[in-house]
Amino acid sequence: MSGSTLEIKDLHVEIDGKEILKGVNLTIKGGEFHAIMGPNGTGKSTLASAIMGHPKYEVTKGQILMDGEDVLEMEVDERAQAGLFLAMQYPSEISGVTTSDFLRSSINAHREEGDEIPLMKFIKEMDGAMDYLEMDKNMSQRYLNEGFSGGEKKRNEILQLMLLKPAIGILDEIDSGLDIDALKVVSKGINKLRNENFGCLIITHYQRLLNYVTPDYVHVMMQGRVVKSGGPELVERLESEGYEWIKDELGIEDETVGE
Amino acid sequence: MSNDVFTRDYIESYSTQQQEPTWMTDFRLKAFETAEAIDMPKPDKTKITRWDFDTFEHVTNNQSAKQIALNDLPEGIKKFIDIEKEQNLLILRDNVREYVHLSEALTKQGVIVTDLRTAIKEHADLVKQYFMTDAVSVNEHKLTALHGALVNGGAFIYVPKNVVVEEPIQTIFWQDNPAQALFNHVILVAEENSEVTYVENYLASETEAKTVMNVVSEVFAKANAKVSYGSVDHFAHGTTSYINRRGLADRDAKIEWALGQMNDGDTISENVTHLLGDQSVCYAKAVSVGRGDQTQNFTAHIVNHGKHTDGIILQHGVMKEKATGIFHGIGKIEHGGTKANAEQESRVLMLSKHARGDANPILLIDEDDVTAGHAASVGRVDPVQLYYLMSRGISKQEAERLIIHGFLAPVVNEIPIEAVRKQLTDVIEGKVY
Prior knowledge:
By secondary structure, chain A is of the alpha/beta class.
């Protein structure tokens, strides 16, 4: 076996006392690219945040396991240490902390004390990844995400993904707000990571990202559950026919999690 | 004043022992009279009636000025100096000059950097003109009056007309004897069209000994002069401090303050700048860290007198444990200050639920055609920011450290001497963790 396995079993999640996820089951293995699609308000981003441990989300039932280890028992930083990475839809802005210092701290957090990445090696790796993502080098000296455009923030998330090389990457609407050129660059970055040791969960409600990053498995979420799974052919059908046929098939009237 | 050590006789004999001219002795005696008649200051929102401003030693050392080798300084002092480079540097140890050096070029251009004791003798006319006359007055309250009566150390910095001082001028006021009080007075005069960057360090031995600091700085930026003034205050826990830094800016002048307010004891610190001339500018930036049970009261205050003047205040404070920090930001536009601008931002980050923080923004505007704005907040470390950093594998403690350093960076990064900037970062590190 290569890579890691992330298992999500009967996951129920609440925010402010309201249940958003109502029993999600999903398994992602190293080498696999999964896409989760679905209209807005069906719980896709909640799944991503709950896996990473966002403070506002409360898991009320179910399990998340990383190679058999209980992720829900881990602090957020321990989840990252275990190999999870979430490219966030709304990354925080942190004033006074340069992007470069943050990246170096992040890389060193994954290394032993006393074995910090040498500065020159870090700069070389960072510059290489920034070139690959066609980013302005000055960005590394700007404060983290402060004053970044939507597209710059997304590229910065993929930059971190490339530098940290996690076992499982979760991309939460990494395509929202990107023009077609930026979308291509971001896709190029994701595809570069594709290998048998890297598993990826791509959350999107547009099909267009999946034209550039082909998933092996596609899941549709509605009402806080995975309601349909299939292969890449599912993307094409959703692109041409939308979501209505799934709702008809399953007898769903309102696909959102509901009030 | 309940301290009966200080009498007319004491002050007279102190002045004589310092071989001061008569005008200085008279100044002290008059200030002493005022001190006996006048009240303590009443800083807004902090009660200081129980603060100990009486326990201290005024003279412990009557040695004459020295010139030691920088390499003989203790490591704790040396680390504040970029020792490899030629320094424009003045060091006072328990108020006595330990070292002074000014580059030959600047000396030739008429720049003066010396301790106040020497300046009173050698540059009497200049000191007389600026010492507690137009900027800080003896009559403000008991502590300024006592300062005038008991001043026992300080620096005099003078930059003549049209002289641009490229390298910074640094002073180190080093309290070695834990009971020693510094009644320290800095005068910085930048004549017309001159430029100077000045950085001062107040350093103390880390003890619980009781003592008092009474520090006054007076900065004069003449027409079109530019003064950049940085400081790191770091007095010990047993020290009660009163710190007053004041600037006067003439036409087209600019005064920039970057103050690292890192005292461990109870502190009142006020920084007031008067934008007297048209188009004068002041940036007043300050960072503070409170810890333990200390109470601190900070005031950043800019008064726009002239037309088209621009005053900008930025104060960021971090309060931990049971510390209290009150931050007043005062922007005052006087009548006649048309097209003036007064902006301020005060933010307090609370690291403990027992800490107290207060940001108190005040705009006082007596003119119609002006712009002004304020922002103030008191809050905790944002859990979503912590989550973001931790989601990259960074530990909670390291994530908090990054956020706090980031929060204080706008001022720390303004400190113009690298060694001092690094020391301020280390002091912050030491205070926060």
